[in-house]
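Researcher: Let's walk through a ligand-bound prediction step by step. First, I give you the protein sequence. Second, the SMILES string for coenzyme A. Third, you return the three-dimensional complex as structure tokens. Ready?
Model: Ready.
Researcher: Here are steps one and two:
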Amino acid sequence: MDVPRIEKSYAEYGERFLQRVFTNTEIDYCNRYGETRFLHFAARFAAKEAFSKAIGTGMRDGMSFKNVGIRNEPSGKPVIELFGPMLERWGSHTIHVSLSHTALVGLAVVVIEESA
Ligand SMILES: CC(C)(COP(=O)(O)OP(=O)(O)OC[C@H]1O[C@@H](n2cnc3c(N)ncnc32)[C@H](O)[C@@H]1OP(=O)(O)O)[C@@H](O)C(=O)NCCC(=O)NCCS
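Model: Step three, the predicted complex:
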């Protein structure tokens, strides 16, 4: 996800945009980075999209931005958190996620593994 696209949405819609798309955990985490927080928001946006593609539906059928979030372990390792219908459907699976960012792009890779 392009970082400037996230910045533009924030410039247009302000906190309402963040509240609609990101969990409180994500907002608290990203805001700690101050001026560079939008890199972290962009990577989380990319993770939500990557998850929606990994499950094969895209953004529909209960897959909404706030039903998938990222929290970070003390080591910094990101972990996917699911809510609502996404938790019901995919909660028993093992979900791997990796995030990365440059100054302009936030990237995410999501792999879903059926638990044995
Ligand atoms: C984890 C590490 C590979 C991240 O690489 P980076 O070039 O700093 O930054 P990238 O943009 O590629 O990746 C950042 C993302 O890595 C992820 N990450 C951080 N720590 C992680 C860990 N222990 N395991 C898996 N992913 C991790 C986070 O999701 C982070 O994004 P977020 O803060 O928005 O959640 C790197 O910081 C590292 O090796 N750290 C351990 C050693 C260390 O802390 N050294 C001190 C710094 S020199």
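Researcher: And what stands out?
Model: The first strand starts at residue 68 and ends at 72. The two ends are 33 Å apart (CA to CA).
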